[in-house]
Amino acid sequence: MKTYQAFSKERYNELQLQQIRLGMEQGLNVTYYLSPKFNWIQMYNIRKGLELGLPVSVYAKVEFNEGQMLQIKQALIDGVDYTMLLDSDIFDYEMAAIRKKLLSDKLSNID
Question: Is 74 a residue whose pLDDT tops 90?
Answer without folding.
Answer: yes
